[in-house]
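Good day; I would like, with your permission, to put a structural problem before you. A protein sequence and the structure tokens that stand for its backbone fold form the material at issue. The record follows directly beneath this note:
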Amino acid sequence: MQTGKHAKLAVLAVMIGLFVPASSSPASAQETGKLSAVSYMPIEQGEAFEVRALDNSAQNLELVSQMQQALRLRGRGVKDGSRLILTLEPRDVVGSGTSSQRHIMSFTGESSTGHEDSTELRFNIFDSQKGGILNEGDQPGGGVQPSQYVLLVRVEDRSNGRQLWEGWASAPLLQGDGSRLLGSMVPHLADAIGTTVSEEPITIR
């Protein structure tokens, strides 16, 4: 569908530099993370969501519960079997070496024989050599970075399998535990559903 392709092309340039850390003081790093999101198709405010995670670990079940609560507080419905499926995927990487070379994203597109083009955005979550969203790689010349946590959220249409929206929040773990950090990202991601934003600062409690 051309609309989905155009949406991806429109945000491609914005997303190239995502998750490359900006210089900041230690104090501000303790309080903020970054949030980005891409809207491929509109999501109506009245639509309900089935919220789920990739597995039933204790941490994921807690994140599902927190997202359900956040959606309800924002006037959105939550119901199993809904047309819209919201999937949570937390990621973390223990502190790693740094490098100036990072491979964050690749973009592919090809014409199909049907009525729409096939487009795909692929995000490199972790690459021990070149670096990705969660780390900056192990090339020589860098220091040690704190553990990084990312919470990815995707919304897809159950009826046709199309992805309508995706968002992700990222922050270093400087104090406390990873579950607390991921939980602090949930309300920000719930606010961003249906929108496109790039590296918006978020407060981590």
